Every structure is written in C-alpha cells, then in structure tokens.
Amino acid sequence: EADIYQTPRYLVIGTGKKITLECSQTMGHDKMYWYQQDPGMELHLIHYSYGVNSTEKGDLSSESTVSRIRTEHFPLTLESARPSHTSQYLCASSARTGGGYTFGSGTRLTVV
Amino acid sequence: DQQVKQNSPSLSVQEGRISILNCDYTNSMFDYFLWYKKYPAEGPTFLISISSIKDKNEDGRFTVFLNKSAKHLSLHIVPSQPGDSAVYFCAAQGSARQLTFGSGTQLTVLP
C-alpha cells in the first residue's frame, strides 16, 4: 500500500500552461523532496523541505516552485510549462532522524 | 562532479546466476548507503541498506558489501530472477541525511 501519493501519474500539457503536481504522505514525515529524472539519468534533487513553511532549492536548478503549508502536502508548481520541462517528477519523504526515503509513483510530464 | 557513480549503465545476467551491481563514491563523509530498485513509470522502492560501520548486510537473495577503504559498494542478487529486471540506483547519505543518487544500472535477467 502506498503511503505517499502523487497525482497525476501522467500529464500531457501545452506550452505556457500552469500546472501543479500533487504529493501527499500519510507517514507524518517531516522531510519531503522533489526529484527530476530523465531516462538513463540519475535522480536530481530540485526542491526539499524539512518542515512546514520550510522549502529549499536542490542541486539542480529548476523553474518550478514548491510550498509546504501542511506537513503531509508538498505540491510542485510550474507557472509556464515548456517542452524542456518534460521529465519524470518523483516525490519522496523521510523521517526526521534520517534513513531511507519513501518514494511516490511519480508523475510523467510531457509538455508539447 | 558526481559523488556517487555507477559506471555500468546496463548488465545482463542469465536467470539463476548471480547479478553484481557496483557503485563507487568519493565523499568519505557518507555513512549510510542504500540500494533502490525502479521499474519504468514507477517510483524507486527501497531494497537494502548498509551502515558504514558494517561491511556486509544480507536480506534474502540480496546482499550488499561495503569496502570503505576503496569507497566501493556492491549489490549481489542470487539467484537472479526475471522479475529482478529493473534499474538499480545506489544512494549515499551523509550528516545532512540527504540522499545522493548514482545514475543507475539497468539489470536485465534473461530467462
């Protein structure tokens, strides 16, 4: 059973549209992350949060923004989608003390 | 500057044989290492981990070996099964508790 949920699973959208990728977890984890992954490439951290009202940019520069108003919810927004944003977006969470991450199923975004 | 490297993008193994996936890291401050398995269009799922105070951890068909002096870890799967075909990511964690991932190795187990 999934403890971290991402919606939608797949999204095809036109250039210039605003989109929000949803991520919610039911484990009470303080830490949440967004990764971007292209086929055959490593996972690149684009945003992370260590708690409510705390967000930081990751190693890979991204035009997306995130918010963390509730512990369980960590949405990612693209104000104006472009074809270069086509990728798989993975959300993850972890407990405060560390250990492994639990990943969602991902959102495959295609911008046409 | 990749701190975690998986130099083999792909590996093919016959069913029933051993699969060995390798991973090298450069940051000596990493103290916890994990392997994740990923199917296409799915998120990575946790497989097995090892603390830097150990050199081996075993869980069923999966064993991870850590060689700290060489900054090298490996995942052994034996016997390999067709359902093991997936991309395997190595990850390392330091004091900030963030994970740094390698680029993955596509394992194909041939029936």
Explain what this protein looks like in three dimensions:
The complex is a heterodimer of chains A (112) and B (111). Chain A has strands at 4-7, 10-13, 19-25, 31-37, 44-51, 54-57, 65-66, 76-78, 87-95, 98-103, 107-111. Chain A has 112 residues and is mainly beta. With 111 residues, chain B is an all-beta fold. In chain B, 0% of the residues lie in helices and 55% in strands. In chain B, strands 2, 4, 5, 9, 10 and 11 form a 6-stranded mixed sheet that branches. A 5-stranded antiparallel sheet of chain B has the order 1-3-8-7-6, with no helix packed on it. Chain B is globular, with a radius of gyration of 13 Å. The mean pLDDT of chain B is 94. The chains are: A mainly beta (112), B mainly beta (111).
Could you state the oligomeric state of the chains shown? heterodimer
Into which percentage range does the β-strand content of chain A fall?
over 45%
Largest sheet of chain B: 6 strands, mixed
Strand content range of chain B = over 45%
How many strands of chain A? Answer: 11
Number of helices of chain A: 0
**CA-CA gap between termini of chain B:** 38 Å
Average pLDDT, all residues of chain A: 92
Order of helices and strands of chain A: EEEEEEEEEEE
Question: How would you sum up this structure in a few lines?
Answer:
The complex is a heterodimer of chains A (112) and B (111). Chain A contains no helices and 11 strands. Chain A is mostly beta strands and 112 residues long.
